[in-house]
Every structure is written in C-alpha cells, then in structure tokens.
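**User:**
My hope is that you can spare some time for a protein that puzzles me. This is the protein in question:
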Amino acid sequence: MRKRDGVIFWPAYFEKNYSREEGRKIPANLAAENVNIEVLEAAAKSTGFEYKVEQAKRYPKSWSEKRGYVVLTNPEGHKKKRLLLMLAKGVRRAVAQRESARAQAQKKKGKRKKVRK
C-alpha cells in the first residue's frame, strides 16, 4: 500500500502531552496519554476500516524517535478530521483498557497469601 492509497495517522496526533504546535491534531479533552503504535493499531481495528502499520517511521516534528504510523484506507471518502475523531474514540478506549490491565496487575501483585493455622 502506497502512502497515497490512504490517510496517514501518527501517534503524536492523539498525544495529550503534546501541544498543537508539537503535532496534536485533536482537542486535549479527546486526547490520551502515552499513545503508541499498538494503541493506534487497536483503534484502527475498532473502526472497521482496512489499515496498514508502518513501524520504523519517524514523525517529522520529533525525528529522533521511531514511533511509526498507521495508514487507514478511506473507501467512503470521509474527511481526515472525521477519521481523526473516530480514531480518537478508539484510542481512548484502548488506553483505558491498557490502564485497567495495568491496575489489575498491580492489584494482583500486591496481594499476599494468607497462611491458615
């Protein structure tokens, strides 16, 4: 799949800790923290569109990190802003699931076995 066959979405578009100048494309109240390519891939999967993941690509505004991007096909001709908002919903859901799993792991780790006499 060539770049022009779809729309490119970088994790920086959805990162809550980034300013608009640093590359965030959606409002801060819709953004999430610590967005990575796996979270973005899960969000793309939840939209139902075909997608392709490019792992070793560098976001031009922060070229020192290899964060990758997702190319989403757009057969219905939606505007990029609409696709961004659809993905943002999936990103927030994926981040919430990740944090929930992390909390469960911490909770499980903190439990001690009771010794019965």
